[in-house]
Structures are given as structure tokens and as C-alpha cells.
Amino acid sequence: MTxxxxxxxxxxxxxxxxxxxxxxxxxxxxxxEHVHQxxxxxxxxxxxxxxxxxxxPELQPALLVLSEATAAFFRLLGETRDGxxxxxxxxxxxxxxxxxxxxxxxxxxxxxxxxxxxLATTNVNVVQIVQAAPQQAMLAELARLIEQLAQPAxxxxxxxxxxxxxxxxxxxxxxxxxxxxxxxxxxxxxADAARFAELDIEARHQLRxxxxxxxxxLEFYSQLVPARRSRSTLKPLQQAQQVLGELNDLxxxxxxxxxxLANNPQAWFALGWLSAQQQQLLDSALPVMxxxxxxxxxx
Length: 299
Prior knowledge:
Elements: H1 3-26, H2 32-51, H3 60-100, H4 106-109, H5 111-114, H6 123-131, H7 133-162, H8 174-194, H9 201-224, H10 228-260, H11 266-293
Helix pairs in contact: 1-2, 1-7, 2-3, 2-9, 3-6, 3-7, 3-10, 3-11, 8-9, 8-11, 9-10, 10-11
């Protein structure tokens, strides 16, 4: 597989996921999972662009523009994701804990009151975000690059079909370059995982982002060439990503609870309950991170 073919395959799979969720949102027929999966698709696209950075120098300026536009799209949707997290943690979870303690949950039932204005993004805002010109331009640029990359691949297929002699696949440094990049990413992730107990909230958040980049990179690599080792490495990555995601959600809810202490007495209960949940999760995360630090090397 040539670099053009490899990048084409990665962009195409990302586009499929992005459009499958951006379409319902643009049509105002969607739920929280559509927003979540759209953000996952955008994150995968950013990871794919990082993985192929510098592989095709002639396309690098266009890929950089696409990466920046994708990051801006992702950040805009982040506020909506935060609102959904708060609705689930600050609302039903805390209410259930209050009921278990025999306390009155009425003051906590109004989740909207606990959500700062910056996070109170409505469905209308989400539709407007996806429909807005910058986001539509980003989707159009992604489609243009996919079409551009498909043209050399189509010419190569026609040449192969016209030749009766069997041909070897072109020898390129693509896989070797991707392997080196993935190994470098994994080395950084494993180093952070090995000292997880020392990491603060911001460092854990950075580790989570690097985990996602490595996981998606390994998935892309497996698309390009069968790689049992890369697939076996994915399991500890997925487990670590799950626990770090839950820690990130709890950190957000704790931050909101602290901001509500002056206005909502029930926020004291929420803060204590969420902090206890956070400590339990931190304790259970340690063996997960130890397994990650000892995981097989990337392909």
C-alpha cells in the first residue's frame, strides 16, 4: 500500500463515522450518542492526520488546515458533551445517593441550576454548530482530499488490470514510518502510566488524549496490514481509556459542585459523594495502568 492509499483508507473510515452522526444532528433528529460519536469521529480523524504527518509532503499544508478545522469543530462540541456528563452525574447519580442516605433530593433534581451557563448548551446550539459554514467547509475539505487521494489509486488499479504479468506491491517506507511513530507514542504513554499515582488532574487528562491517539493509530495500522500484536495491545489501552474517561467526568462534576457551594446547600453532599467516587476510581485505576505500562510493544 502506498502512502496515498494508506491515508485515503484512514480518511475514508473517519468520514464514514463523522457523516453518520453529523447528518442526524444537522437534521435536528439526534440524541446525546450522536454528539458523542461525532466527537469520537473527529478525534479519530485528528489522530489519523497526526499518524500520517509528513508522509506526503505535498499535501502537508492542506492536511494541517484540515487538522486545525477539525480541532475547532471538536472543541465546539465539547461543551455539549460536558453538559451531558453533568446531567448524568450531578443529576440521577447524586439523587440516587441522596435517596439512599434518606435525604431530600429536591434541590438536586434541577440539574440545569447546577450547570454553569457556559455548559448549558441546548440541542439548537448543536444543530447550529454542525450547520455553520466553518464546520461545513471542514467536511467539504475532507471530501475533497479523499477524492484527490482516490485518483492515483484508481490509475494504479487500471495499470494493474491492463498488465497480464503479476506485479509486486510497491515498496514504500510507509509501514516502517508508521511503526516508528506508534512505538514512540506508546513509549510516552507507558512512561506516564508507570507513574500514574504521581499525576495530577491535568497530567491525567494529557495521558487520556495520548491514549486515544495511540489507540486510534493502532486501529488504523491494523486496517493497513494484519497485525495481531497491535490488536493485542488495544485491550489494555481500551481499559485505561475507559477509567481515565470516568475520572475526567468526575473531575468536571466536582468542579461544578465546588462552584455551586455558595448557592446550593445540596452541593456539599454532591461534592463529598463525587470525591469519594473519585478516590475509589483512582485506587482501581492503578492496576489498570500497571498492565498498560507492561503491555506489548506497538507493531
